[in-house]
Amino acid sequence: MLSRIKDRYIGNRAFYSTVIAVAFPIMIQSGVTNFVSLLDNVMVGQLGTESMSGVAIVNQLIFVFNLAIFGASSGAGIFGAQFYGNGDVEGFRHTFRFKVLLSFAILVIGLCVLRLGGIDLVSLFLNDTDSGNVALTLSESSGYLGVILLGLIPFTAGQVYSSTLRETGRTVVPMIASVAAVFVNLSGNYILIFGKFGAPQLGVRGAAIATVIARFVECAVIIVWTHTNSHKTPFMQGLYKSMRIPAKLAGQIAVKGAPLLMNEVLWAVGMAVLMQSYSLRGLNAVAALNISSTVSNFFAIVYMAMGSAVAIIVGQLLGASQMEKAQDSARKLIAFSIASCLVVGVLLGLLSPYLPLLYKTPGEVRDLASAFILMSAFFMPLHAFMFSAYFTLRSGGRTFITFLFDSVFLWVVSYPLAFFLSRYTNLYILPLYLIVQLADLIKCAVGYILLKKGIWLRNIVSSGKTGI
Predict the structure, then answer these.
(1) How many Cα neighbours within 13 Å face the side chain of 69?
(2) Angle formed at CA 39 by CA 34 and CA 42, multiple of 5 degrees
(3) Rg of the chain over CA atoms, in angstroms?
(4) What is the three-class DSSP state of 46?
(5) pLDDT value at position 71?
(6) Segments of the chain scoring below 70 in pLDDT
(7) Burial grade of 96 (CB within 10 A; 0-12, 13-18, 19 or more)
(8) What are the b/e assignments for 49-77, b being 16+ CB within 10 Å?
(9) 120 domain residue, yes or no
């Protein structure tokens, strides 16, 4: 019995060496990025609850844009990973071009929406009865938003390149770029938020300026390396001589990618409206959830990196038509992710009373944040399974199913639950939040059934090379 469990769910040394080689740089990159977000959050938190809440609300809107870009890259990324596993450089090159065109179309739309209607969207989150607090929070949001929009340009370009490099298994370069951005962002925050070394004290605007500069640095590192190491990135040769993509392939990517793009956008918007429902319990709830999500995201890098590893490793195996190995690898990757997050969850739970003390906020906000962090620690293994299940299904091109599994579930189950509880009951924010999170148990059950059926075991580039 134990031997059978070990054979099914535990890999050998070579397996974990491959996993670590792929996942560890992603984990470092995400860890560094989230650590900077944590420090950024703590520094802004020193300015007060209103400043922190204002920045948190804007970042919730930016999060929608970020996931739209992620979704735009993901559809082509499924083909990219399989083309790479199949040795089709020309097909891989076409997927890159598709990413560029779609991502920058989304960039233009995103800039227009956030520039023209950003403050109106921020106002939807401000429901506190204290008009002075609301006015200050809105003012801080406006100042931060006016600057941070510039950072969407390098973010978009950087994501197109870094996601492409990851599909080839080259995860170290994006990690190095993120590390470089960290030092720029961290030093910029310290200097510009608080007015050090003779610089003006800019508060939340200083935080935004530092973030924008760091985005440009990160983008430059990735793009320069990719174009100056063409022997390691053969798909870059002749990449921009033409932006033409074979119509058949473009149609295939669009069909597979549309559900992913819709999923990411609807999921991000869904998370924003969830936050809007929670915000009906006041600015303290918004501030506490901001602290909790920032801290929890830093610890969530484990299952996020493992999800990316699933997409890369399993996607390449499917592209090479190694179905049995792909199924075995997916099962062991998911088990490894859950086991890792059990350990990380325990650590986060132990630290939950102390991490909110880093913020200059009232005691009620800290107590709420501590409780939210403890809940996040408890649900971490659950999220590890859901994240890995999502990427496993996606690796085989089952994008419509992932759309139903992810964002449709949020809009059909999670949001209506939060909407009803926040508006038609007097339930305190903590049990309200807990009930909504517990609904994810349904998603876990569905994910387990879908994985067990093996409907994701498909090679979607098996027709051969593009020949274009």
Answers:
(1) 24
(2) 125
(3) 22
(4) coil
(5) 81
(6) 1-4, 7, 29, 32-33, 36-37, 127-132, 462-468
(7) buried
(8) bbbbbbbbbbbbbbbbbbbbbbbbbbbbb
(9) yes
Residues comprising the chain, all counted: 468
Amino acid at 114: L
Position of tokens 């950087």?
Answer: 158
The residue type found at 274 is L
On the CB side of 394, CA atoms within 13 Å amount to 35
Contacts for 384 with CB less than 8 Å, ≥ 6 apart: 302, 303, 306, 337, 338, 340, 341
Asked if the structure places residue 459 within a domain, the reply is: no
Asked whether 101 and 253 are in contact (CB, 8 A), the reply is: no
Q: What is the rounded distance in angstroms from the CA atom of residue 283 to the CA atom of residue 130?
A: 9
pLDDT, tens only, 92-115: 888 888 999 999 999 999 999 999
Total of domains in the chain: 1
Say how many C-beta atoms besides its own lie within 10 A of residue 147's C-beta: 18
CB atoms within 10 A of CB 398: 22
Distance CA 309, CA 245 (A): 28
The two tokens of residue 114 are 């956030």
Instruction: Please state, as a whole number, how many other Cβ atoms lie within 10 Å of the Cβ of residue 232.
Output: 13
Predicted local confidence at residue 465, as pLDDT: 44
Give the pLDDT score at 128.
54
Tell me the HSE value of 283 on the side-chain side, using a 13 A CA sphere.
Answer: 24
Q: Is residue 66 part of a domain?
A: yes
Torsion of CA 449, 268, 356, 376, to 10 degrees: -10
Q: Which domain holds residue 236?
A: 10-453
Report which residue type is found at 209: I
Whether residue 391 lies inside any domain: the answer is: yes
Q: Is 6 exposed, middle or buried (0-12, 13-18, 19+ CB in 10 A)?
A: exposed
Tell me the C-alpha to C-alpha distance, in Å, between residue 192 and each of 197, 205, 211, 215, 341.
9, 8, 11, 16, 36
